[in-house]
Amino acid sequence: MELPDVFTRYRPAITQGLRDALTDSELPLYGMLRYHLGWQDEHGKPLEANSGKAVRPALCLFACEAVGGQWSTALPAAVAIELIHNFSLVHDDIQDGDTHRRHRATVWYLWGHSHGVNAGDAMNILGNLAMFGSDGAALPPQTALTASRILTKACADMIEGQVLDLSFEQRANIRVDDYLLMISKKTGALLAASFHMGAAIGTHEARTTSEMLEFGKELGLLFQVRDDMLGVWGKPEVTGKSAANDIHRRKKSLPVVHALEHAKGASRDRLLAIYKSESPLTEKDLSDVLTIFAEVGSARYCEELARQTAEASLRHIESVEMSLAAKRECAEMTRFLLEREY
Amino acid sequence: MELPDVFTRYRPAITQGLRDALTDSELPLYGMLRYHLGWQDEHGKPLEANSGKAVRPALCLFACEAVGGQWSTALPAAVAIELIHNFSLVHDDIQDGDTHRRHRATVWYLWGHSHGVNAGDAMNILGNLAMFGSDGAALPPQTALTASRILTKACADMIEGQVLDLSFEQRANIRVDDYLLMISKKTGALLAASFHMGAAIGTHEARTTSEMLEFGKELGLLFQVRDDMLGVWGKPEVTGKSAANDIHRRKKSLPVVHALEHAKGASRDRLLAIYKSESPLTEKDLSDVLTIFAEVGSARYCEELARQTAEASLRHIESVEMSLAAKRECAEMTRFLLEREY
Predict the structure, then answer these.
(1) Do B156 and B263 reside in the same domain of the chain?
(2) Does the CB of B153 have a partner CB in chain A at under 8 Å?
(3) Which of A163, A168, A170 would best serve as a mutation to test chain B binding (most B beta carbons within 10 A)?
(4) Which of A272, A295, B44, B289 has its CA 20 to 30 A from that of A153?
(5) B311 and B331 both lie in a single domain
(6) Which helix (H) or strand (E) holds B100?
(7) B25 to chain A, minimum CA–CA distance in Å?
(8) CA neighbours closer than 13 Å in the CB half-sphere of residue A241
């Protein structure tokens, strides 16, 4: 299925905005940030431009345009949210001990934990600076303040989600509701803030802004639920990841959280034993996990939740004052997030 | 020598502002933050209020009042800067591997590196949120934005300073000028921002604000130079730290940076060997270091630099439109920082 145009059409402006935000400083700190963003290798040699998918800034610019604003006015907020998202990735990699991200060594793995912490901190701070805009592209003060507040609150939620996520690693008794609360914070908050900020910059109409926020919340949930499904049942030739990747990594994503809540007796014991063990997963382990998922209907549950979330997202859009074209694009996004295979 | 009144008189308001900023959330994340600030023990049991010295917020409120503003209007900025300062402490402790701070176990040492990173991130974000103020105490939008920009730029400087500091640990050839640049960023930026924000909130007069910023820069330098002197020659019974603490820790502070730049031949080789070694310092090592410091006049150099910095700070104050009482308090601060024994 094709990537909706909204995810790609703002890319040149976003890339330029990000480059402007990272100044030309030759300090080694900024080299680490440019490396993380894929602009240069670890020795400082420029790479073919690759700023990642930059989904959040695109959604922010789209939301501004959809509610009747000039999308370019939301650029400071769009750049800010992408930098904040990348701050969370740099620190996440430290916390999860991940040595690679998108087939490249992570910042801490190349430069050590201390510099990794600094690089994340710097990305966070540059995100806040970007919101103030360069002098020519600054938002009106009240708007900048509103957007800053939305982004900062979303950031606080994101960290709360990260803390919950870390605590889940130690626990067996996570319930689906706990899990959904965690992802609404850890992934959902920034995605929702993208829509919320964009709308708040594009219009002063409070109901429109709040419906866009709600739309964003549902899309954030939908994104993560689908991500969790692909992590278990995705096709490796499309996702680019190994089959049942999240089971091999023993990631406590939605399918296993659901199964742990609903499996009984020997099935539950087996599932717990597999997820507690630290030795590499055997073929037998994997097939047992998938069998238990099938017994308790975890795939069906995830599909149903995704479908309901998609419907809920569309209900928020129906009632917003917005051009038909913009509404159609919202529906396209929802459909893409519901059906994507990668 | 007595602590100037300016450092204590705003404390009740600062403490209250900090408590308001940390919400009543029962999430474990906020427990770590309250622990770090000394409000509760690691199990959540409240402690006698102890919010640390809170120097930066006091300077911010003072600056606002000194230039003719109502000090209480600067409270959001004062609370923000104290939280940002504490964010840097939490991450610093991780980077330096420090297990204790002011005789209490550090956050990462109690809860692990991952939670330590999160706790610092959260403190940073709450600092930004505090700037927006609770609804009753919010700054006018343009002022809030100006203050936010000052604080965020100072934060970026602080991280740059931290990166420089880490890189110095690996190097023998740090020159005094490199060192002074590093501390102007790592310690100086936030101290200067305290004065800068306070003044910018208290007056719209650009020259006054800029002189207060310069005053703050000099005080930040003076603070650190004196700190470095006390770390080598301070009296343990007054500082509360062991004698020659910074030499034992092999901290590359101003006296040794100066000595490494000026010592020659065998003295320099000996100094380098002692600072490169990883075994505990012997009595002989310590006395050799102090002898070399004396040979090249490191103490005299530090004293002279502190004196000149104090004079420079006062020149900025002379020309500011400010009450005589406020000018007198500035001079008191300078004198205190120049002469303090702890």
Answers:
(1) no
(2) yes
(3) A163
(4) B44
(5) yes
(6) strand B100-101
(7) 11
(8) 20
Q: Does the CB of A279 have a partner CB in chain B at under 8 Å?
A: no
Average pLDDT, chain A: 93
In a domain, A300, yes or no: no
Of A113, A118, A148, the CB nearest to B163: A118
DSSP H helix total and E strand total for chain B: 17, 2
pTM of the model: 0.93
Question: Which of B95, B113, B145 is facing A141, going by the closest CB pair?
Answer: B145
Which pLDDT tens digit goes with each residue over A47-62? Answer: 986 656 899 999 999 9
User: Tell me: the pLDDT tens digits for A230-262?
Assistant: 999 999 988 888 889 999 999 999 999 999 999
B161/B209 same-domain check: no
CATH code of the domain covering residue A77: 1.10.600.10
Domain that holds residue B209: 205-342
Q: Quick check: A301 and A260 in contact, CB under 8 A? A: no
* Dihedral pair phi/psi, residue B104, rounded to 5°: -125, 145
In our burial notation (b when 16+ CB lie closer than 10 A, e otherwise), range B296-333 reads: bebbebbbebbeebbebbbebbeebebeeebeebbbeb
- The amino acid present at B191, given as its one-letter code, is L
Q: Could you give the dihedral angle defined by the CA atoms of residues B315, B321, B325 and B331, in that order, rounded to the nearest 10 degrees?
A: -10
User: Does residue B183 form part of some domain?
Assistant: no
Chain A residues with CB under 8 Å of B123 CB are none
Residues of A (115-134) whose Cβ lies below 8 Å from B: 115, 117-118, 120-122, 124-126, 128-129, 132
* Domain count along chain B: 2
DSSP bridge partners of B100: B105
